[in-house]
Amino acid sequence: MAQTLEQQRAQDAWNYTKEHVNIAKGLPSLIMNSGLMQVLAFCHEKKKENEQVASDLRKWLGKRFSNDPNFDLFMVKLMNAKPSDYQAITAEAFAWLRWMRQMAAARIKGD
């Protein structure tokens, strides 16, 4: 039987570290205040754990929306997206981040 989208998000979030979870906790509010593209650019510039979380988020969104996870190509795709597509991509980013915060944090706490 195929996994639901929620199960896929949970599975994707399963192997993250505490540092990744801490970063993921702050990203939704940053996205709400600044927008998805600005936050991805900020994370890309910061490197290390921020970039890892942003890269994994781009990979996830790429699987869901047939986008290239490469930073430059992904950003160009977002810049050229229809508003409804951009909103759907942003909503999926929120959903993925929610699972990362919940699933990974619970797993880390249980260790």
- Can you identify the CATH class? Mainly Alpha
Structural Rg = 13 Å
Low-confidence stretches: none
Quote the distance from N terminus to C terminus: 30 Å
CATH architecture: Orthogonal Bundle
Number of strands: 0
CATH third-tier fold name: Peroxidase, domain 1
Mean pLDDT: 86
Classify the helix fraction into a percent range.
Answer: over 70%
The chain-level structural class is mainly alpha
Instruction: Name the CATH superfamily assignment.
Output: AF1862-like domain
- Whole-number total of structural domains: 1
Overall geometric form? globular
List the secondary-structure elements in sequence, H or E. Answer: HHHHHH
Count of alpha and pi helical runs: 6
Largest sheet: none
Give the SSE layout.
Elements: H1 5-13, H2 18-34, H3 36-46, H4 48-65, H5 71-79, H6 83-110
Helix pairs in contact: 1-6, 2-3, 2-4, 2-6, 3-4, 3-5, 4-6
Short description:
This protein is mainly alpha-helical and 111 residues long. It has a single domain, classed as AF1862-like domain (Peroxidase, domain 1, Orthogonal Bundle), CATH 1.10.520.30.
Descriptive overview:
This protein is mostly helical. It has a single domain, classed as AF1862-like domain (Peroxidase, domain 1, Orthogonal Bundle). It has helices at residues 5-13, 18-34, 36-46, 48-65, 71-79, 83-110. The relative contact order is 0.18.
